[in-house]
Fold this protein.
Amino acid sequence: MRNTIAALLLCLALLSGCQGKGLAVIPQDPHSLDRYALGLRYKQQGRYLLAREQFQLALATSRDMDMSRRCQAEIAAMDRAIREER
């Protein structure tokens, strides 16, 4: 009986040690999110130079690869849109 209780307590201790070791979430910089949102707004309005500038500012303060890739893709899209207008 004592061995069973000891084994059960050992298992619970080991399982509780695994808790919280998951994916770490890195919050985005609020400035970066604001700049990205403003860039999207300018893009919808057809103000591509302003949108590109906002995406560059968002890229400069982005904290993860996903946001960086999104900003780079939007910058490339703005470059294409600007070239098509000329």
